[in-house]
Design a protein that fits this description.
This protein is α/β, with parallel strands linked by helices and 271 residues long. It has eleven helices and nine strands. The mean pLDDT is 92.
Length: 271
Protein backbone atom coordinates (compact mmCIF):
# COMPACT_ATOMS: atom_id res chain seq x y z
CA UNK A 1 0.00 0.00 0.00
CA UNK A 2 1.25 3.45 -0.89
CA UNK A 3 0.68 6.95 0.37
CA UNK A 4 -1.06 9.78 -1.43
CA UNK A 5 0.90 12.60 -2.98
CA UNK A 6 -1.65 15.32 -3.58
CA UNK A 7 -1.19 17.20 -6.84
CA UNK A 8 -3.00 20.26 -5.61
CA UNK A 9 -3.90 23.48 -7.34
CA UNK A 10 -6.61 26.02 -7.87
CA UNK A 11 -8.28 25.23 -11.23
CA UNK A 12 -6.44 26.27 -14.41
CA UNK A 13 -3.09 26.52 -12.66
CA UNK A 14 -1.10 23.76 -14.37
CA UNK A 15 -2.25 20.59 -12.62
CA UNK A 16 -2.86 18.65 -15.85
CA UNK A 17 0.50 19.83 -17.19
CA UNK A 18 2.33 18.49 -14.13
CA UNK A 19 0.43 15.20 -14.35
CA UNK A 20 1.37 14.88 -18.03
CA UNK A 21 5.02 15.50 -17.14
CA UNK A 22 4.98 12.86 -14.40
CA UNK A 23 3.40 10.29 -16.70
CA UNK A 24 5.95 10.95 -19.41
CA UNK A 25 8.82 10.77 -16.92
CA UNK A 26 7.56 7.53 -15.38
CA UNK A 27 6.78 5.78 -18.68
CA UNK A 28 9.87 7.14 -20.46
CA UNK A 29 8.55 5.97 -23.82
CA UNK A 30 9.59 6.91 -27.34
CA UNK A 31 6.45 8.98 -27.91
CA UNK A 32 4.27 11.25 -25.74
CA UNK A 33 1.91 9.66 -23.27
CA UNK A 34 -1.72 10.26 -24.22
CA UNK A 35 -3.54 12.98 -22.29
CA UNK A 36 -6.52 10.60 -22.19
CA UNK A 37 -4.43 8.10 -20.24
CA UNK A 38 -3.44 10.35 -17.36
CA UNK A 39 -5.29 7.93 -15.11
CA UNK A 40 -2.51 5.38 -15.62
CA UNK A 41 -0.53 6.80 -12.70
CA UNK A 42 -2.82 9.46 -11.24
CA UNK A 43 -6.46 9.85 -10.33
CA UNK A 44 -8.82 12.70 -9.50
CA UNK A 45 -9.96 12.51 -5.91
CA UNK A 46 -13.38 13.90 -6.77
CA UNK A 47 -14.23 11.29 -9.46
CA UNK A 48 -17.78 10.13 -8.85
CA UNK A 49 -16.91 6.48 -9.47
CA UNK A 50 -15.06 6.36 -6.14
CA UNK A 51 -18.18 7.46 -4.22
CA UNK A 52 -20.68 4.99 -5.70
CA UNK A 53 -23.33 4.93 -8.40
CA UNK A 54 -25.57 7.35 -6.49
CA UNK A 55 -22.89 9.95 -5.82
CA UNK A 56 -24.82 12.74 -7.59
CA UNK A 57 -27.59 12.49 -4.98
CA UNK A 58 -25.25 12.76 -1.99
CA UNK A 59 -25.25 15.85 0.20
CA UNK A 60 -22.00 17.61 1.05
CA UNK A 61 -22.08 16.08 4.53
CA UNK A 62 -22.57 12.59 3.07
CA UNK A 63 -19.67 13.08 0.67
CA UNK A 64 -17.46 14.19 3.54
CA UNK A 65 -18.34 11.10 5.54
CA UNK A 66 -17.20 8.97 2.61
CA UNK A 67 -14.00 10.87 1.83
CA UNK A 68 -11.66 9.25 4.40
CA UNK A 69 -12.61 5.74 3.23
CA UNK A 70 -12.25 6.79 -0.43
CA UNK A 71 -8.79 8.16 0.26
CA UNK A 72 -7.83 4.97 2.08
CA UNK A 73 -8.88 2.97 -0.98
CA UNK A 74 -6.85 5.22 -3.26
CA UNK A 75 -3.67 4.28 -1.42
CA UNK A 76 -4.18 0.71 -2.66
CA UNK A 77 -3.97 1.66 -6.33
CA UNK A 78 -0.15 1.44 -6.33
CA UNK A 79 2.32 -0.18 -3.94
CA UNK A 80 4.28 3.04 -3.36
CA UNK A 81 3.22 6.61 -4.13
CA UNK A 82 -0.23 7.36 -5.50
CA UNK A 83 -0.62 10.67 -7.34
CA UNK A 84 -4.01 12.21 -6.64
CA UNK A 85 -5.23 15.40 -8.30
CA UNK A 86 -7.29 17.76 -6.18
CA UNK A 87 -8.66 21.28 -6.41
CA UNK A 88 -9.86 21.13 -2.82
CA UNK A 89 -8.48 23.60 -0.35
CA UNK A 90 -6.45 21.95 2.40
CA UNK A 91 -9.12 22.45 5.05
CA UNK A 92 -11.99 20.65 6.76
CA UNK A 93 -15.72 20.65 6.18
CA UNK A 94 -18.27 19.19 8.61
CA UNK A 95 -15.32 18.36 10.84
CA UNK A 96 -13.69 16.11 8.23
CA UNK A 97 -10.56 17.02 6.22
CA UNK A 98 -11.00 17.39 2.47
CA UNK A 99 -7.58 15.74 2.07
CA UNK A 100 -7.07 13.02 4.69
CA UNK A 101 -3.79 13.60 6.62
CA UNK A 102 -3.43 10.00 7.76
CA UNK A 103 -2.92 8.64 4.23
CA UNK A 104 -0.89 11.58 2.94
CA UNK A 105 2.76 11.09 1.97
CA UNK A 106 3.16 14.67 0.76
CA UNK A 107 1.82 17.27 -1.65
CA UNK A 108 2.95 19.23 -4.68
CA UNK A 109 1.12 22.55 -4.73
CA UNK A 110 1.08 24.41 -8.05
CA UNK A 111 0.23 28.09 -7.81
CA UNK A 112 -0.43 30.55 -10.65
CA UNK A 113 -0.91 34.30 -10.85
CA UNK A 114 -4.63 34.81 -10.11
CA UNK A 115 -4.88 37.42 -12.85
CA UNK A 116 -3.98 34.75 -15.40
CA UNK A 117 -6.18 32.22 -13.63
CA UNK A 118 -9.16 34.56 -14.02
CA UNK A 119 -8.64 34.79 -17.79
CA UNK A 120 -8.09 31.06 -18.31
CA UNK A 121 -10.76 29.84 -15.88
CA UNK A 122 -13.40 32.19 -17.31
CA UNK A 123 -12.79 30.80 -20.80
CA UNK A 124 -12.89 27.22 -19.53
CA UNK A 125 -16.05 27.69 -17.44
CA UNK A 126 -17.74 29.83 -20.10
CA UNK A 127 -18.28 32.66 -17.64
CA UNK A 128 -17.53 36.34 -17.96
CA UNK A 129 -14.28 37.49 -16.41
CA UNK A 130 -16.19 39.62 -13.91
CA UNK A 131 -18.18 36.55 -12.83
CA UNK A 132 -14.95 34.63 -12.42
CA UNK A 133 -13.36 37.39 -10.36
CA UNK A 134 -16.38 37.23 -8.05
CA UNK A 135 -16.05 33.43 -7.83
CA UNK A 136 -12.34 33.62 -7.02
CA UNK A 137 -13.06 35.98 -4.16
CA UNK A 138 -15.83 33.84 -2.65
CA UNK A 139 -14.88 32.01 0.55
CA UNK A 140 -17.50 29.37 -0.23
CA UNK A 141 -16.54 28.85 -3.88
CA UNK A 142 -16.91 25.22 -4.95
CA UNK A 143 -17.14 22.99 -7.98
CA UNK A 144 -20.57 21.38 -7.72
CA UNK A 145 -21.37 17.69 -7.63
CA UNK A 146 -22.55 16.44 -11.02
CA UNK A 147 -22.75 13.23 -13.04
CA UNK A 148 -18.96 12.97 -13.20
CA UNK A 149 -17.73 14.09 -9.81
CA UNK A 150 -18.47 15.01 -6.22
CA UNK A 151 -18.03 18.58 -5.07
CA UNK A 152 -14.68 20.24 -4.51
CA UNK A 153 -14.44 23.09 -2.00
CA UNK A 154 -12.02 25.69 -3.32
CA UNK A 155 -12.69 28.74 -1.17
CA UNK A 156 -11.24 31.98 -2.45
CA UNK A 157 -7.99 31.95 -4.42
CA UNK A 158 -6.15 33.47 -1.45
CA UNK A 159 -7.63 31.02 1.06
CA UNK A 160 -6.82 28.11 -1.21
CA UNK A 161 -3.21 29.17 -1.66
CA UNK A 162 -2.60 29.79 2.03
CA UNK A 163 -4.20 26.49 3.00
CA UNK A 164 -1.72 24.52 0.92
CA UNK A 165 1.29 26.59 1.93
CA UNK A 166 0.55 25.53 5.51
CA UNK A 167 0.54 21.83 4.60
CA UNK A 168 3.37 19.65 5.96
CA UNK A 169 5.65 17.75 3.56
CA UNK A 170 4.74 20.16 0.78
CA UNK A 171 6.57 21.34 -2.33
CA UNK A 172 5.48 24.69 -3.75
CA UNK A 173 5.91 25.18 -7.50
CA UNK A 174 4.90 28.30 -9.40
CA UNK A 175 3.39 27.84 -12.86
CA UNK A 176 5.51 30.73 -14.10
CA UNK A 177 8.74 29.08 -12.92
CA UNK A 178 7.84 25.84 -14.69
CA UNK A 179 7.48 27.87 -17.88
CA UNK A 180 10.63 29.93 -17.44
CA UNK A 181 13.02 27.22 -16.19
CA UNK A 182 11.42 23.83 -16.82
CA UNK A 183 14.57 21.76 -16.31
CA UNK A 184 15.20 23.28 -12.88
CA UNK A 185 11.66 23.17 -11.52
CA UNK A 186 10.43 19.89 -12.98
CA UNK A 187 13.64 18.30 -11.64
CA UNK A 188 12.75 19.75 -8.25
CA UNK A 189 9.46 17.82 -8.37
CA UNK A 190 11.26 14.55 -9.14
CA UNK A 191 13.72 15.10 -6.29
CA UNK A 192 10.91 15.92 -3.90
CA UNK A 193 9.23 12.61 -4.72
CA UNK A 194 12.38 10.78 -3.72
CA UNK A 195 12.34 8.40 -6.66
CA UNK A 196 16.10 8.45 -7.23
CA UNK A 197 18.52 10.61 -9.13
CA UNK A 198 17.10 12.80 -11.88
CA UNK A 199 18.09 11.41 -15.26
CA UNK A 200 18.88 14.37 -17.52
CA UNK A 201 17.87 12.81 -20.83
CA UNK A 202 14.71 11.35 -19.32
CA UNK A 203 13.86 14.74 -17.78
CA UNK A 204 14.32 16.56 -21.09
CA UNK A 205 12.17 14.03 -22.93
CA UNK A 206 9.37 14.26 -20.35
CA UNK A 207 9.43 18.06 -20.50
CA UNK A 208 9.33 17.98 -24.29
CA UNK A 209 6.54 15.38 -24.41
CA UNK A 210 4.41 17.39 -21.97
CA UNK A 211 4.93 20.73 -23.70
CA UNK A 212 1.89 22.86 -24.45
CA UNK A 213 2.11 22.32 -28.21
CA UNK A 214 2.13 18.55 -27.71
CA UNK A 215 -0.79 18.56 -25.27
CA UNK A 216 -2.84 20.95 -27.42
CA UNK A 217 -2.03 18.89 -30.49
CA UNK A 218 -3.27 15.72 -28.80
CA UNK A 219 -6.48 17.48 -27.81
CA UNK A 220 -7.01 18.74 -31.36
CA UNK A 221 -6.43 15.28 -32.80
CA UNK A 222 -8.32 13.09 -30.36
CA UNK A 223 -10.11 15.34 -27.88
CA UNK A 224 -9.58 15.42 -24.13
CA UNK A 225 -12.13 13.45 -22.14
CA UNK A 226 -11.55 15.46 -18.96
CA UNK A 227 -12.28 18.79 -20.63
CA UNK A 228 -15.73 18.85 -19.06
CA UNK A 229 -17.52 20.23 -22.09
CA UNK A 230 -15.13 23.13 -22.58
CA UNK A 231 -14.46 23.97 -26.20
CA UNK A 232 -10.69 23.90 -25.61
CA UNK A 233 -8.91 22.78 -22.46
CA UNK A 234 -5.36 23.61 -23.54
CA UNK A 235 -6.00 27.22 -24.50
CA UNK A 236 -2.82 29.31 -24.22
CA UNK A 237 -0.24 27.82 -21.87
CA UNK A 238 1.60 31.03 -21.10
CA UNK A 239 1.98 33.61 -18.37
CA UNK A 240 1.12 37.31 -18.46
CA UNK A 241 -2.00 36.90 -20.62
CA UNK A 242 -3.85 39.05 -18.11
CA UNK A 243 -2.11 42.13 -19.47
CA UNK A 244 -4.20 41.88 -22.63
CA UNK A 245 -7.12 39.89 -21.25
CA UNK A 246 -8.15 42.08 -18.32
CA UNK A 247 -9.25 45.69 -18.10
CA UNK A 248 -7.49 47.95 -15.63
CA UNK A 249 -10.60 47.86 -13.45
CA UNK A 250 -10.56 44.04 -13.40
CA UNK A 251 -6.86 44.00 -12.51
CA UNK A 252 -7.54 46.37 -9.61
CA UNK A 253 -10.38 44.18 -8.35
CA UNK A 254 -8.18 41.09 -8.27
CA UNK A 255 -5.27 42.90 -6.67
CA UNK A 256 -7.51 44.55 -4.06
CA UNK A 257 -8.82 41.13 -3.00
CA UNK A 258 -5.69 39.01 -3.34
CA UNK A 259 -2.79 41.46 -3.46
CA UNK A 260 -1.35 40.62 -0.06
CA UNK A 261 -1.23 36.90 -0.81
CA UNK A 262 -0.04 37.48 -4.38
CA UNK A 263 3.01 39.30 -3.06
CA UNK A 264 3.80 36.39 -0.73
CA UNK A 265 4.23 34.27 -3.86
CA UNK A 266 6.30 36.87 -5.69
CA UNK A 267 3.60 38.27 -7.97
CA UNK A 268 4.14 41.98 -8.39
CA UNK A 269 1.14 44.25 -8.31
CA UNK A 270 0.46 46.52 -11.27
CA UNK A 271 0.17 49.71 -9.25
Amino acid sequence: MGGIVWLASYPKSGNTWVRAFLHNYIVNAEEPHSINNLVDFSVAECAGIFYGAGHAALSAKQVQRLRPAVHEQLTKLHPDLVFVKTHNANRSLHGIPLCTPGVTAGSVFIVRDPRDVAVSYAAFARKSIDEMIDFMGDTGAANATDAAQVFELLGSWSEHALSWVAAPKRLLVRYEDLLAEPERYFARIIRFLGTGEVEAARLQRAISFSGFDVLAGQEAAAGYRAAGGAETFFRAGKSGQWREGLTSAQVKRIEATHGEVMQKFGYQLSA
